[in-house]
Amino acid sequence: MGAPGSGEVRCGSAEGEVHVEAEITGPTLLCDPRGRLRRESVGWSRHPLHTCNIKGRWPRKKRWNYWCIVDDKRLFSVTLSSVDYVGLAFAYFLEYETRRFIEQTVMVPFGWGVVLPDTVNGDARLKHRSMNVSFEQQHGGTHIRVDSPNFGGVRLSADLLVERPEGHETLNVVIPWTDSRFQFTSKQNCLPTTGTVTLGGATFAFERGKALACLDYGRGVWPYASTWNWASCSGAQDGWTIGFNLGGGWTDGTGMTENAVLVGGRISKIHEDVSFVYDRADIMKPWGIRTKVSRRIDLTFRPFFKRVARTNMVVVRSEMHQLIGCFSGTVITDDGEVVSIKDLVGWSEEHVARW
Predict the structure, then answer these.
(1) pLDDT, tens only, 90-112
(2) Which residues of 163-184 are buried (b: 16+ CB within 10 A; e: fewer)?
(3) What CATH superfamily is the domain 23-222?
């Protein structure tokens, strides 16, 4: 990454490369009995097939379940995570037109009480006096409940059901830095969602056909210093659901990417690096996000809201700029179809961490 305060940033490998990425088609364990990466587990799949049997490695283990639900008026997100020495629960709500934004973070020493499963389709929860969170698997989907007595001065009560349509494909990837440093991620876009978020006396409805959810499920053993860009979108256009997951920086040099396009519930894996070009001195200017070899991804991202999250605990430091905005441009599927995108709401972020 460029130094803080520098101008244009280009994140991605110096030269474009098309990767040879194995597709995994059957259940597999991520780790061997010693907690090291099983090389047979490295690859990508259209459905979550990995069991993340990570053990030991304190304090390098990082685990999280991040949910974000969007429609044409608002966004709601909630996360449960543990980085060994601390557990985190956080939620935020954004109303696009008014720019009303509320966020709350709860920290738990050593992750006490944070339950995070080894598989994507498992239950996660935290019971805490400041915030109760649960992600329960039921009815072919995930039931999300969040309750906070003081969410920016009002009570928060969220009750949402995220559906997983039969046959719906997702992006599941193992990133192998080394046999002792690795990450499994499941990125699930365009999941139909219904339910409500209540803030004080106001209730906001997320309706099926309008609201779509994204899951970012991560389990891994990370190096101390990490830098990445991440872009994600789930929306509907011309009668199709369209989504994508794009990343840069953290996967460079591993032979794997976390890049894919989802159209109508079908994944097209992008086997090449993606370049994020933006002005760090004015991060709210439009971004360019493009594949480095082909024209399979050719997007412009125009932010309209900036969320900044900083952590500074001496040895643990993190700074994240998550921009909410609109994507326009084109993506190309595995079938060669050029899909036009116009003003689909999503996010792109820059994250620098020492954790």
Answers:
(1) 999 999 999 999 999 999 999 99
(2) bbeeebbbbbbbbbbeeebbbb
(3) AttH-like domain (2.40.370.10)
